[in-house]
Specification:
With 335 residues, this protein is of the alpha+beta class. Helix content is 23%, strand content 28%. The protein starts with 5 loop residues before the first strand and ends with a strand.
Length: 335
């Protein structure tokens, strides 16, 4: 096997924020053999190996001094089933939304995660979630290659240590684990999760899986811009979680503030906080907070990582001064 490695590759179109950036080297991986060969090539080039999936949750640096690799395998395979569940293996290179749409042919549970941009291989890293559902709830295990030990590893869902927009791949295994495929455990019986507005207006008894996907797509499309038209990375900041005592204090000062009780603490709506600070639709050079949803940062042609960081710090500082809450960005810097 011989992998094809390109040099000095423009990654502007490979990240949904459209940030200008270039990789020292670039290639695709489809198998364990290709990963082993790419790791050897990276050593010869004296470059680290970095995985770029769908580019929907990254802040691209202008110069990425690495051999950047992207998953290209895109198979979906039914592994087994019983009376209540089905187990399906999905390659890392499969488009996430396409997988959600296809998943209802096997089982159920992922419908609320429709239209989230990116590839399946990135879903466990961020533990993507929407409308009360997280990908980690349905991941039985995944297979990947650990760079430091040069070993193929199978990690259970528990070993991935999923939490809110987090996983072991953003901590101990950051930049050390290349996900190859993910095994999902889906429910045979369709039991929709409709706890979050506006899905709570739907009739669960009459709802079909396809209708739920259609509704989620419609709702997301009305709130979030299409990254192919308006470059963005979806929700830019995490919804912050504060103590119940501080949440009560904020309620007294801001009675209209949305708050959501958690098992520990109270979650606040970052978009509401940003909107109240007057940032919705406001531009700072080639970057701005989206006019329809203040939580979304958008860019125009020529925007760079420094432009994004500038607006990020302005928003964080104003929100902190107003509400005493420090917002943490969701996208990770890719450099």
């Amino acid at each position: 096997m011989t992998v094809n490695i390109q040099h000095q590759v423009d990654l502007t179109s490979a990240n949904t924020l459209g940030l200008s950036g270039r990789a020292a080297a670039f290639s695709h991986y489809t198998s364990l053999g290709s990963l082993i060969e790419l790791q050897q090539s990276a050593r010869e080039l004296n470059l680290p190996l970095r995985v770029l999936s769908g580019g929907s949750n990254i802040l691209l640096a202008e110069h990425v001094n690495a051999l950047v690799i992207k998953p290209a395998a895109n198979n979906i395979r039914l592994i087994r089933e019983n009376n209540t569940h089905v187990w399906v293996d999905v390659d890392a290179g499969v488009d996430w939304h396409q997988w959600v749409c296809a998943s209802i042919n096997y089982g159920h549970g992922l419908e609320n995660l429709a239209l989230i941009p990116g590839l399946v291989g990135a879903a466990p890293v961020q533990n993507i979630g929407a409308y009360g559902v997280e990908a980690g709830d349905f991941i039985e295990q995944l297979v990947g290659y650990q760079l430091s030990t040069q070993q193929l590893r199978v990690l259970s869902g528990e070993e991935c240590r999923f939490s809110y927009r987090n996983s072991i791949f953003k901590r101990e295994l950051k930049n050390d684990f290349v996900i190859m495929r993910v095994r999902f455990r889906l429910q045979k019986h369709f039991t929709p999760t409709l706890n979050y507005a506006p899905l709570d207006q739907l009739n669960a008894d009459r709802l079909t899986p396809a209708e739920l996907i259609y509704t989620v797509v419609d709702v997301r499309s009305s709130k979030l811009p299409d990254p192919k038209i308006t470059p963005n990375a979806g929700s830019f900041f995490h919804n912050p979680v504060v103590t119940e005592i501080y949440a009560a204090e904020l309620r007294q000062r801001f009675p209209a503030m949305p708050q959501y009780g958690q098992s520990v603490g109270v979650k606040l709506a970052a978009g509401w906080l940003i909107d109240q600070c007057g940032f919705k639709g406001k531009a700072f050079g080639p970057v701005s907070m989206y006019e329809k949803q203040a939580l979304v940062l958008t860019t125009s042609k020529g925007a760079t990582l420094s432009d994004v960081h500038n607006l990020q710090k302005i928003v964080q500082t104003k929100v902190f001064k107003t509400f005493g809450v420090w917002l943490v960005p969701e996208p990770q810097v890719f450099d």
